[in-house]
Design brief:
Elements (H helix, E strand, L loop, with lengths): L2 H14 L3 E2 L24 H4 L9 E9 L1 E2 L2 E2 L13 E10 L4 H15 L7 E6 L11 H8 L7 E4 L1 H4 E3 L4 E12 L3 H6 L13 E14 L5 E14 H8 L12 H11 L7 H22 L8 H20 L11 H8 L4 H5 L1 H32 L6 E2 L1 H11 L3 H10 L3 E2 L1 H12 L8 E3 L3 E2 L7 E2 L6 E4 L1 E9 L2 E8 L1 E2 L13 E4 L5 E4 L1 E5 L2 E7 H10 L7 E5 L1 H25 L5 E6 L4 E6 L6 H16 L5 E7 H7 L12 E7 L2 E4 L14 E10 L2 E8 H21 L6 H40 L2 E5 L8 H10 L4 E6 L6 E6 L1 H5 L4 H9 L5 E4 L3 E5 L6 H11 L1
Parallel strand pairs: 1-2, 6-7, 12-13, 16-20, 33-34
Antiparallel strand pairs: 2-5, 3-4, 5-11, 6-9, 8-9, 9-10, 10-11, 14-18, 15-18, 17-25, 18-19, 19-24, 21-22, 21-25, 23-24, 26-27, 27-32, 28-29, 29-30, 31-32, 34-35, 35-37, 36-37
Length: 874
């Protein structure tokens, strides 16, 4: 049986048992804060088991794509090294929601395996829950009794709570389970050691293939159990493991689930699978990881540096590293394997086929990026190991952080490389380096900083800029800095209305003024180590230092309110834009970055295609409707993050949040945000998108303007249209008039080209007649010499002694042509050398082949002299 046959047979079997066959849920989980990826078949039915939803059917079956790479279910490090662990796998399952229970679940499983799949029942073992004294639970004699009707008692084993009692979490539905194991060993091994002694002993050939969970209890907060009102069945069977059994293999990777990919990898690597242990591991890793990454991208999760996106990037980079190190792939190759994957699985999972181009592009871009740094990073790692004394076999945490920070190595990749050499990594030191990075600017190396001059012992600072733009302040510290040969002072205030650049919003500008008339311009505001730092010109601050005692002065800090207002209009518009994009394009749209200043806004987001003109107009329309509705700002400055999530607040790409967060809400738009915003969307005035384009594979960028800038943009477009109307003599339909003009121009251009061809033909005919009298022809013509190459070379073939020199002022620019017959070339003449020399007479140059060359120039008055020079050289 092929893997596709096996999957189909499973679904058909349960369909015949009155189960609703449902589609696989996405592998990427979007609406469950406890999960990033679907890691079990029951995930999509979780609300039903919890009693939060009513099942639309009482029986269901499916083939669910799952990913296990983090948390409790983390198989990543085992992938490729053993025969049966995977990151991405399929789970075949059947469910009963308050319908049948243990007896039918056991009967269905046994019938499918022994009668449909025809697995030898002598190779099967089952386990039942053996009881647990702490929970006051007896052995599951009910399940034991039902199994006795199908299988010898010597093959029914009693399992512990660890193996045979399934729980969704610390609280909630749970119950005993019954596992079905299969013994794939050779007969001699079975005689030597009975299979029952190897069940749940991590033997790669005595493995669990199906788990039947009988949900009959509810775990309360105090740890006690109570019976469920409705009992459910939740089963899960490893599809890849079943294929191994049915195809007579001893490794999942030897089945047709993986072999097409593995053989394609082997072909590209120029090696045979099975000939080298480490290369085999690499091929298995790549085949497995390609599946995981491709399915994740198809479900909308792109590689990134955060959360689920980081998991996918880590998996892909792990595959690239194995190919690079053990198979010699120094160029991108994984993206090319997607053709094989789609051909194999696209019919069952059409999203693979639909998103094939996107998957390939994103993987290619990720490979190109990582390969650039991988070689250097691995070289640094090998040098580190080579220079070590061999006594302390621990990678220094600072070095691990250097690989992460400089070479883009995820730390788990460094740990993998270290483990292969018997080393460990100092993770405490790595975490320290990571924490330090957050508190410094990478650009600090390009900045010369003096020490801080402390004026106050209290270094705390209060930001008041959400509420007011003018505040009485004092300076608590300052220092001189030099940035790219420009000098400034950084000033820290005890309290400030100035917003420091962060979260994509630029810093405020304004002034610090004293009662004595001194005014310090604040040219920028930054955030550094948790403080808002105000940038002021060095000369102005130095003047103040010379005649005043800074520590005793009070200042009026005043933000440029017009600039702040424009910034806030643009920032609030990004929130409205985000909401509109998700409504128009789909919920897969997520913010990937933004930049907001007083002139415009830039918004990066995940999407797979160029927006159509209609989509752009619809997005603009929705934003402008929100503006006209004058939606008031609803702000929560210190909301517990759990409450914010319940409110629907959207966490943004790459951001990290504490226990309490600021939430900004404009109607249906709810986001975590620390930036400043307008009080009412009506203040924005208007919104216009000025550009939309690609930033990277799967990522788009919109730039837009608001308010007065939007008016200026529209006025500019209107001015261009008015100018066009004037040029076209004020037609009713400028577009149609312009099209007619372009059509007329094209027709005239065709006529001109035809005339030029006829003109060239006439010149060539005249030259041919002259060559018959004298092989050397020198002439000034009124023609485009660029049109004559083919005709001249054809003429040269017929006249090996000819030498033609033509000069032309066509188009107001001098040009020169020299064409020589074969005999003259063989005699040592070179047309390219001749035109380069002669071209200098008209302030130009050129070149070409020995038989044919041209030159152009700037000085039309030098054309005749250039012709004469070329003729003399001929």
């Amino acid at each position: 049986m092929t893997s596709n046959d096996i999957r189909t047979q499973f679904l058909k079997f349960f369909e015949s048992k009155n189960h609703r066959v449902v589609e696989s849920a996405p592998m990427v989980v979007k609406n469950d804060p406890t999960l990033m990826f679907t890691n079990a078949g029951m995930n999509q039915f979780k609300d039903i088991f919890l009693g939060n939803a009513t099942a639309p059917y009482s029986r269901a079956a499916d083939a669910q794509k799952c990913l296990r790479v983090s948390g409790k279910h983390n198989d990543l490090e085992e992938v490729g090294r053993d025969t049966y662990h995977h990151t991405m796998f399929e789970m075949l399952g059947n469910w009963s929601f308050g319908d049948y229970f243990k007896q039918d679940a056991i009967a269905y499983a046994w019938e499918f395996l022994t009668e449909v799949m025809k697995i030898n029942r002598e190779n099967l073992y089952v386990t039942v829950f053996g009881g647990d004294e702490k929970d006051g639970l007896a052995m599951d004699s009910e399940a034991y009794g039902y199994w006795k009707a199908h299988i010898d008692e010597c093959r029914i084993l009693k399992g512990s709570k660890k193996d045979n009692f399934w729980e969704m979490g610390e609280q909630g539905p749970c119950g005993p389970c019954s596992e079905i194991h299969v013994d794939l060993r050779d007969e001699a091994e079975k005689l030597r050691v009975p299979g029952r002694e190897l069940v749940n002993k991590d033997n790669p050939l005595v493995i669990e293939i199906w788990n039947l969970v009988f949900m009959q209890f509810n775990r309360l907060a105090n740890g006690s159990l109570e019976p469920l009102k409705a009992k459910h069945i939740d089963t899960g069977m490893g599809f890849e493991r079943l294929c191994m059994v049915m195809q007579g293999k001893k490794s999942n990777y030897d089945t047709d689930v993986f072999q097409p990919l593995i053989q394609e990898i082997a072909r590209r690597a120029g090696t045979a699978y099975g000939s080298n242990g480490q290369a085999d591991i690499a091929m298995r890793v790549i085949a497995d990881h390609l599946r995981a990454v491709s399915f994740s991208i198809a479900d909308g999760q792109l590689p990134s540096n955060a959360k689920a996106g980081y998991v996918i990037r880590r998996i892909l980079r792990r595959a690239v590293r194995y190919g690079y190190t053990f198979l010699g792939f120094k160029q991108p190759f994984i993206n090319e394997l997607t053709d094989t994957l789609v051909a194999q699985m696209g019919a069952q999972y059409p999203e693979l086929m639909k998103q094939h181009d996107l998957i390939r592009r994103i993987i290619l871009e990720e490979e190109q990026s990582f390969l650039k740094t991988l070689a250097n990073g691995i070289g640094r790692f090998e040098d580190y190991i080579a220079k070590a004394d061999g006594k302390n076999m621990t990678i220094d945490g600072a070095f691990a952080f250097e690989l992460f920070d400089t070479y883009g190595f995820p730390v788990d990749l460094t740990r993998l490389m270290a483990s292969e050499k018997g080393w460990t990594v100092d993770m405490e030191g790595f975490q320290k380096g990571l924490a330090e990075q957050k508190n410094r600017s990478r650009a600090a190396a390009a900045v010369e900083n003096d020490d801080w001059v402390e004026l106050a012992s209290d270094t705390t600072q209060e930001f008041v800029g959400y509420d007011r733009l003018i505040e009485e302040v004092s300076i608590s510290r300052y220092r001189h800095i030099k940035v790219k040969d420009k000098e400034f002072y950084q000033v820290v205030l005890d309290r400030t209305p100035f917003y420091g650049e962060s979260g994509g919003q630029v810093g405020d500008q304004g002034t610090l003024s004293t009662d004595g008339g001194d005014v310090l311009p604040v040219v920028d505001t930054k955030k550094e180590n948790g403080l808002t730092v105000h940038i002021v010109p060095a000369d102005k601050f130095a003047d103040l230092l010379r005649h005043a005692e800074i520590g005793g002065l009070r200042f009026k800090a005043e933000v440029d309110k017009c600039r702040r207002f424009a910034i806030e209009c643009n920032h609030s518009s990004t929130h409205l834009l985000h909401k509109a994009l998700r409504k128009v394009l789909g919920a897969h749209v997520e913010q990937k970055g933004s930049s907001v200043d007083d002139q415009r806004l830039r918004f990066d987001f995940s999407h797979f295609a160029k927006l159509s003109r209609e989509e752009i107009r619809e997005v603009e329309k929705m934003v402008n409707i929100d503006i006209r509705h004058a939606i008031a700002l609803e702000e929560h400055r210190a909301m517990p993050i759990a409450e914010a999530q319940k409110l629907g607040a959207m966490a943004l790409f790459g951001e990290k949040y504490g226990d309490r967060v600021r939430v900004v809400k404009f109607g249906e738009s709810v986001e975590f945000c620390g930036g400043t915003h307008i009080a009412n969307t009506g203040h924005i005035g208007s919104f216009r998108i000025v550009s939309e384009g690609a930033v990277a594979a799967g990522m788009r960028r919109i730039e837009a303007v608001t308010g007065a800038a939007a008016e200026q943009y529209c006025n500019g477009l209107q001015d261009q249209l008015d100018c066009l109307r004037d040029l076209l003599k004020n037609p009713k339909d400028p577009a149609a008039a312009l099209q007619r003009l372009m059509d007329d121009n094209a027709a005239l251009r065709t006529q001109v080209e035809q005339f030029q061809k006829e003109q060239v033909a006439g010149f060539v005919k005249d030259i041919a007649a002259r060559i018959a009298q004298d092989p050397v022809v020198v002439q000034r013509v009124e023609a485009d010499l660029g049109q004559m190459k083919d005709a001249m070379l054809a003429l040269a073939k017929c006249h090996p002694d000819m030498a033609v020199v033509l000069g032309s002022p066509f188009g107001g620019k001098p040009s020169l042509l020299v064409c020589l017959g074969q005999n003259r070339v063989e005699a040592g003449k070179n047309a390219g050398t001749i035109v380069r020399t002669a071209g200098k007479e008209m302030q130009g140059g050129g070149g070409g082949q020995p038989a044919y060359a041209t030159a152009g120039g700037k000085n039309l008055d030098g054309l005749d002299k250039a012709i004469a020079t070329a003729a003399a050289l001929v």
